[in-house]
Amino acid sequence: MRQPLEGVKVLELSTAGVGPFMGWTLAIWGAEVIRIESEKRPCISRVTLVYKDNKPGLNRCYLFPIMNWKKRSFGVNLDHPKGLELVKKLVVWCDIMTASYSPRVIRKWGLHYDEVKKIKPDIIMVQTSMQGTTGPNADSVGFGPMLKALVGFSHLTGWPDRLGTGPQGAYTDFTAPWFGVPALMAGLDYRRRTGKGIFIDLSQYEAGLHFIAPVIMDCLANKRIQNRCGNESTYAAPHGVYRCKGDDRWCAIGVFSDEEWEAFCSTLGHPEWTKEPRFATLRGRKENETELNRLVEEWTVNFTPEEVMEKLQTAGIAASVVADPVDIFDRDTHLKERDFWKVIDHREIGPFTYCRLPPILSKVPLETGPAPCLGEDNDYVCTEILGISDEEFAEMVADGVLECV
Amino acid sequence: MTQSDTDLLFSPYRALDLTDEKGLLCGRILADLGADVIKVERPGGDSARNIGPFYNDIPDPEKSLFWFAYNTNKRGITLNIESLDGQDIFKKLLKTADFVIESFDPSYMDSLGLGYSALSEINPRVIMASITPYGQTGPYRNYKACDLTLQASGGLMYGSGDPDRPPVRISFPQAYFHASVHAASATLIAHHLTQITGEGQHVDVSAQESTWLCIALESYFWPLLQYIQKRGGGVVRRGANYFREVWICKDGEVNFRFLGGAYGRALNNLVTWMEEEGMAGDLAGINYETLDIYKITQEEVDHLEKMIGDFFAGKTKAELQQGAIERHIYLQASNTPEDIVKDEQLASRDFWASIEHPELDVTLTYPGLPFRLSETHPIKRAPLIGEHNIEVYKEELGLSAEKICALKQANII
Predict the structure, then answer these.
(1) pTM for the whole thing?
(2) Which of left, alpha, beta for A400 (phi over 0: left; psi -120 to 50: alpha)?
(3) What ranges in B50-83 are assigned the alpha helix state H?
(4) Which of A218, A237, B182, B348 has the fewest CB atoms nearer than 10 Å to its CB?
């Protein structure tokens, strides 16, 4: 079966998370993605902490392949006029262009949409940045671990009596990309029908707000400022995370309906406290939630989180091990059975196991491919795509226009 | 630029949206791109209409702000797909559709005779997207789930929160939104293939897998370095060192992480700012582009953080945000919902959409489109229960008024 995006050409003028994740999605499903890279501005995923054999090097960082397998890398110095010229030729070559360097840098190169469309009028271009390409904060720079605060995720995560800690990680790197990809694909369809291109300004701030839109609307319409509330729910109890047997082992449990409460009590073997009238209704359980949680935990601490999960799932109650990375990588048989892990090759790092993209297409097998070294595809790009002679190629290597690590 | 409805990015295409809160955002993305998305609700209205908050705090299926937020730009019909007549109508509609989006339990659509293979016999071009907690296959496929348990099984929760308390979730549901954006993305990619081959397919999206991706970067420290990123209350571990991510300032919090090496210029810029205000101390005069933050000692990290923390403590969120933009520093203010609705950047970009609700006699303000398109259209409010029944059943499917009345009385629409 052919891959969905076979023949689609993508120029990735992107770095860090959001841009590369969009390109990764397109690459996985068959697009030819050429990532522009430079030693002078190495992607943060090439210079963070974890290197093959602990020896730093731009081609040795294990984090890079996560969102870059199946791409090609074109190492080119954009601060050199000749380098810029090459990239502009690729702009003409491509169908889709992603740009995720800061808007200030993109403008400096003259690779913002107003310029790009002069040389490629029907281009489908997404430019993504912290706060969008216009407005007083257009030049805002940063990464997901900071932007998650601006979008309100830090405020909305944690305990009401403590600081908002936010979810772990570069959270907004995962809320923005898959708003961008559907827009790019719709743009491709639009161009096929009308011959016209499209520009998509993907503010990671604005996209992220759609993950909390009702909270924002509650503030706008009802003047309510929602706050973080630990693990509580207004319409379920027990609803929380309970300590289990083991070191820092927990199980998340959500009991919503009266039937589920009955099944929950039954799973516990109907201890005396479950018969107390104060726990008989959801309202009662909410009013006595601290005590309820303490009693539930008296039960859960006797079992491993897997045991608690299995007992409750058998009774039809939502429950899950609070999965740590060991659970996810080593113990989750469900993910293994769904073929979640893929061995990805890399010339210097060698094979290592990474996760696939979440969606599964019934008629298109997911094909893997290696992640590139910086500039690994210079020869291919110059010879096959740009038609540059060997002499000129050698000259550009010598002049530092082309970079290969 | 505003265009006519017939010439939007994705306007020739139609989706039947059978989802509840698990998949509403997927349909909304298609609708935002211009597709004709018909929300198919059970008679009486979808269960997601009971999710709060509610306009004016009045619980009412026509006043759910959750419903409003994730159903804009859609049309709405009611249809009982569990009845044979309802299935018959659904199959007629299917012939006009390019996409079916559903979020029922994995075997449910099959049990109604509406699984992918049945649908593809009627319309081979159709793409069916299924959004479920754990996907269509695998031992957990029938597991019960809620957002809390998915943030747990998706690994997002374990590293979030304070060290002395249990792992904690993002207070507002998230897992199904991750599944929904992936579903929209994969559905449109599959659509590109359908345009070439004429053949649709089934897209299977698991909320657990979609949620896990959010935490992937941190999680690889386990197979690579054999350590687990624990919840640190706003402090994260990188190798041997711990770095502060959430900082207290004069009127709230900001998120900031200092980086060295190729990304050390931002720290240079911050220290220059501190120096200008006489607060850099011995941090001045160092080029942080030569600093490997993973090689220095925790004491050195702590010293840097003490100095930076003292500087932040004397400034407001707005001052720090403004300075960070001017000086290219990796810092963002920690916004409350109130900060967001008052944000000048969002206002200056005309982010907010005013949408009329004549039935409520009010114009409500919404977050605008998640992406800014050079070719765009105004946002329409979410459909009322069965609002487009006549439009769809009578004008499109050609059902007679008598037949529609009979279906209504049989509780099919």
Answers:
(1) 0.98
(2) left
(3) 65-70
(4) B348
